[in-house]
Predict the structure.
Amino acid sequence: MSHGNSIWSRATALAAATPESRNRYVDFLRALSICAVVVGHWLVAAPYVIDGDLNLTGNMLQSRPWTQWLTWLFQVMPVFFMVGGYSNGISWRSALRDGRSYGEWLNGRLQRLVGPILPLLMIWALLAVVGRQLGVAADLVKTGSQMALVPVWFLAVYVGVVVLVPLTYAAWQRFGLSSFWMLFAAVVLNDVLFLTGTHAVGWFNYAFIWLAVHQLGYAWLDGRLGGTSKTLVWGASALVLLLMLVRFGPYPLSMVSVPGEDISNSLPPKLPMLLLGIAQCGLLLALERPARRWLSNLRPWTTAVLVNGMIMTVFLWHLTAAMLVIGIAVRLGEVGLTVDPRSGIWWLLRPLWLSVYVVTLLGFTFVFLRFERGAKAQPVAAWRQVVGATLICGGLSLLALMGIGGEGRLAQSTWVVLMQFIGAAIAGVNPVARM
């Protein structure tokens, strides 16, 4: 039996054993959102060779502005955070009911989130050193690593959100939807301050916006968002307001950063990102009933189980896979990289490029999936997990902004890389236990 067939067989067995009480739509939306992000990243990148030089920072959103509308479909991280709120709410309730401590609960979450990051960082740190020793330009090492490590910004935020679950869940129990609207108001105030010149406060929106969407997950879990009609109103109202802000307000169209624009809706995130999340979540929840009926069939549910079983590995390695394909294309005589991203031929070639990306990513997934699965390390004190998670979040944030590569003997900001491993050690995250 092939490795692929074995994985499908295990997923089928897990799918068949799923209790009827499980909300399968939660898992489906998690898988859908990550797949959308992966495809979106692969489409927005437009590397090309011009005058013999490889431009890794080519961006389709910049060269073809009409594609910025597509970010409203592919920027689905809000959906992932809402799903996270639903799942975290269930697991935290279960921990409280079973008498498990915060440290025991957090250990399981950090093992799943942080464990798969460490081999990715080790590989890129090694590539940075070897690349510089072989004479690769420092700026190319820096740009390549930065592009490959774009996904870690999400984990920097999500790990922080998970650490705060006892507080956010307590706020939900006490204030209900008001806990969401208080964060919504904080986002509005934050944007006003940012747009009037106090730019430093903008970074607080990483907490306000993603915690707000996470609160919607609690609301979904408790049935506080209503049925189909009410969720449609939520989604449609947010969409109308978003269109008005983009059309008449100071905000750009794209929901991801576009080189050269003065304001970004995502770096740091702003009110349009929150409205997009409300619109997406409202419209998707309006489809929950028919979607859950469809997912009662074994094949689509098995597919969702399969993707969820490797979701972190796929997410973390998809841009590294793309970078490898691009590197091989350069070595093969710049095949496919001399096509102008503004041409129709470029779009006709996208299915072929995406297919090669998928095959390469599957190779990475089969190698590194072991770090997403396996035994859990012995839990440590909760304060150690919080301190370790804080170091990890800070380090990942810096890596998302800076990349690994840089000047110097080791061709990297060594201390930034080490922050993740020190934080993991303090928090008791043990990737070796996954081997």
Remarks:
- The radius of gyration is 22 Å.
- The longest strand covers residues 48-50.
- The mean pLDDT is 88.
